[in-house]
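dude i think i finally got it to work??
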Amino acid sequence: MNQPDLFQEKAEGWDADDRHRALSSAVGNAILQHVSFDERMHVMDFGAGTGLISAAIAPLAGKVTALDTSEAMLEKLVAKPELRGRVEAVFQDITDKPLGIKFDRIVSAMAMHHVQDTHRLIRAFAEHLKPGAVIALADLDKEDGTFHPEGTPGVFHHGFDRHGFRAILEEHGFWGVRFITAHSIPREGKEYPVFLCVATKEPNRASFRIAHTPTPRFW
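look at this
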């Protein structure tokens, strides 16, 4: 992966930012309220960053695989003693190189707007899930482009329209799609709602074949 690390400078102070902690707490609580976990489950945390969502899930799941394309953020995650032995960090872009693993749950918080091709991402999620598995995906509702400063690298979407996002999920074999407003981020006199979308992979839908790929980098 030869792309620049867009979070190289942000990683150091990420967890110290009250806004990040409030957002992760709200999303984590919403996930736990609307999705079940148990010790038999293998969970993917997509765009895991420093592990704030993984930390909420790990005590309830058998294993959490934390994926990110920022080495700097993953370095912060693996340095947390409370996550050692519970969370495995993986530096990989699954839209380009699948892991070859099937998961029981996929969770994600504020990562999808950093992925240019949403269809490709949702297809990758479907490919990595067992039939009947559940996704819980949080991101910004559609906004006017003012949440991020103009020209911010790596921002491809100004949030997501719920109806359009539902259609993408259903196209790729998800059903029972529902949305919850998990949080609202105040910024310069405006409020930016954050949704949590929960859906189930169709149990009888033929799974996509995951091709053999090079071994991902595990931490």
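The chain is about 25% helix and 30% strand.
im so relieved honestly
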